[in-house]
Every structure is written in C-alpha cells, then in structure tokens.
Write a structure and sequence with these properties.
It is a single chain. It is built from 14 helices and 16 strands. By secondary structure, the chain is an alpha/beta fold. It folds into two domains: about 160 residues, NAD(P)-binding Rossmann-like Domain (Rossmann fold, 3-Layer(aba) Sandwich), CATH 3.40.50.720; about 190 residues, 2-Layer Sandwich (Dihydrodipicolinate Reductase, domain 2). A seven-stranded parallel β-sheet has the order 3-2-1-4-5-6-15, sandwiched between helices. The two termini are about 30 Å apart.
C-alpha cells in the first residue's frame, strides 16, 4: 500500500506539533508541517526528524488566506489537516482541497459558521469522491464516540451523557490571539440544547448539574453545551432517549467575572466587540489558571437493566487533542472508512478500536460496568 502524505496547516502550533509527533511515531505516513512562517515550519520539521532519527517530516510555507499558496502546498498530498485557528478562511481551504483533489480533516472548534460553510460544499465533496471530516480532536471529537462505544456494550441503550473539564496552564503554553478569537466565536454561538425524553430541548441556566470527575478534579457544576456531532446519535442509536454534552467552566474569576463580561459585550455590541472580548479572555486565561491541569471526559450511560461509566483523561490537553485526531487518521489511512462525503469524527470512527488506540497513545481510559458481561477495553 502506498504511503500517504498529510499536510498539517498550523503544523508547528501547540496541537499541530503534537499530532505530527504522534504520527511520526507510527511511521505510516509522510508529514508536511505548514504555516505562514516557512522557516519556523522547516525548523519544527527538522527537530522532529532529529527526535525520531528519520526523514519523513518536512516544512513548507502556506498561507490559509491565499488560494494560490494553498494550491502550491497541496501538490502530491492526500489529505490536509487544519489545526490552525483559521475558520474565517475555511471556504478558501475547502475550495483549494477540492481543486487539488485531496481529502480534508479539521480540528477547529464547532460553530454554526463553520458547519454552514462545509454544508455549502457537501454536494461537491460527494461528487468529487472526497472524504471530508470535521469536528476532530477532543471536544468535539471524543464525546459522541463515547456514546457510540456505550451502544456497543449496552443493548437498547436509553441514556448517555458526557461531561467535560478542561484546565490548561496558559502561563506555560503558547496562547495566540487567534485562539482567543476562537473562544469568542464559541461563546458567541453558545447553545444549550440537549436531547431529553426523545426530543431536542433548549436548555437554560437552571439545567446545571453536579458531576463527580474523581479525586483530582472533584465535583463540578456543568451546563448543557450543544455539539453538532450529537445531532445524529438518536438516529444512529434508535433506543437512545436522553443524551447531551455538558461542560464545566474555567473556575473562579473566569466563570463569575470575565466570562459574564465577555457574554455581555458580545450581546450588547455583537458586531464590534470580538477583539476586545478576545483580549479580556486572553488576560483572564493567562492570569487566573490554577491547578489541577488536564482534560477529562466522563460518561454515564444506561439502559433499563445495565449501566456503564467511562472516563477519558490526560494531563496535557494538547495530547488529548492530538491522540484522537491520530486515532481517526489511522482508520482513514488503512481504509476502515472510505465512503465519500462530509462526516464528523465522533460519528465516523469505529469506536472500540478508536478507544483502544487512545490507550496506546497514553490516554487514561477507565470503564466501570457492574452489570456488564460483554467486551470492555
């Protein structure tokens, strides 16, 4: 089988470099790190090649806002992975990928704007016989796959909710202004919809629930947060009557002062406050983050007679983004899924193998099913 070539836009960023590092360990693909700074991309590629004593990584200059630049970078490539904060340039990247006859995968945040842009290209994607995957990485990316995993273990699954804590030491991490702008977009389009008693229901502030995340993070209050990858779960799992994703806040000053100020700015001045809101968030994230650090997802799933609890954890939030991305890519590379179209990572991957691979990448996965007799990781 011919070795595939992947180009990573944002390849020398926090998430991009971790994805490249995990991919390099597999030695199954050629890797191109791409970004606006060609020298930085080349240096990052050289560092990875030296780290693993082989020469499968190279760096190139590629500007996500420039179609000609992308067409040049996409030559002799099989798939582009978008790991950069470039949602505003999504139509240019998508169009360049289709013109170059290559596949597409993004790990950007899930916003209506991004999905609307991808939907505009859905027919062309299918007619071009291309595979486009969106909402990759950690959140979105893993939660819907957790629910689908529960469905493989519990016949007639009726309820499965997934909750998340995400705490980063931003003082020690590269925090770009474009990343803060993505958080602003997430707040701007924040939706509290969840699936209750067989109907999609609009949540509100009264729908906070206490979730026990274990000894490290303790109990936190989480609010419903709609993820597009959940929308097709009731159709994929007909017995499912209750499902949704729930997110804890950042804690302390961020939750009770900075985020409310951000929401207020975006509501009162929706067309003029994005950059100011991003600056406020940037200050808050850099100056108020407190341990423990890490990312954890916990699921509680049940049927009438069975129940299952599943937790996915890693202390490095960028590893927890990179690992599921690479686990999905491995299934793409070996043809586990090969049907053209537009897909979500969480509803596309084969879930049992997906979580087995996450364990091999160092993710801590625990499953408790006291009434279960079938296959468990």
């Amino acid at each position: 089988m011919k070795q595939k070539t992947i180009i990573i836009l944002g390849g020398y960023g926090n998430a991009g470099i971790e994805i490249a590092r995990l991919l390099a360990r597999q030695q199954q693909t050629n890797i191109i790190l791409a970004g606006r700074n060609g020298k930085q991309a080349q240096q990052a590629a050289e560092d990875l090649n030296n780290e693993y004593s082989f020469n499968c990584v190279r760096g190139v200059e590629a500007d996500a806002s420039n179609r000609i630049s992308l067409l040049k970078a996409f030559q002799n490539v099989d798939i582009v992975l978008v790991a950069a904060s470039t949602i505003e340039f999504a139509p240019i990247i998508i169009d360049a990928a289709l013109e170059s006859n290559i596949d597409y995968f993004d790990i950007q945040i899930s916003t209506p704007e991004k999905h609307q842009m991808l939907e505009m290209f859905r027919k062309q994607i299918t007619m071009s016989n291309r595979i486009f995957i969106t909402d990759g990485g950690y959140r979105p990316g893993i939660p819907a796959a957790m629910v689908r995993y529960a469905a493989t273990q519990i016949p007639e699954l009726t309820s499965a909710s997934v909750s998340s804590v995400f705490q980063v030491n931003w003082k020690k991490r590269q925090l770009s202004f474009s990343t803060c702008m993505e958080f602003v977009d997430e707040f701007k389009y924040f939706n509290q919809k969840y699936f209750k008693d067989g109907v999609w229901t609009q949540g509100n502030m009264r729908d906070f629930s206490a979730v026990d995340f274990g000894t490290q993070f303790g109990t936190k209050y989480c609010m419903p947060m709609y993820l597009e990858e959940f929308h097709s779960l009731p159709e994929l799992i007909p017995s499912l009557k209750n499902t949704g994703f729930y997110s804890a806040g950042f804690g302390g000053l961020m939750d009770f002062v900075i985020i409310p100020i951000t929401f207020a700015l975006l509501k009162v001045f929706p067309d003029r406050s994005d950059k100011l809101a991003a600056r406020i968030l940037e200050w808050g994230m850099r100056n108020t983050s407190r341990p423990p650090y890490g990312a954890v997802l916990t699921m509680r799933a049940k049927s009438i007679s069975q129940q299952l609890t599943m937790t996915v954890f890693h202390e490095d939030p960028y590893i927890i983004t990179a690992a599921p991305t690479v686990a999905c890519l491995l299934q793409y590379f070996d043809g586990t899924f090969n049907q053209p179209g537009l897909w979500h990572q969480g509803t596309l991957v084969e879930p049992i193998r997906f979580f087995e691979d996450l364990k091999t990448f160092g993710m801590q996965i625990s499953i408790h099913a006291p009434t279960h007799r079938g296959y468990l990781l």
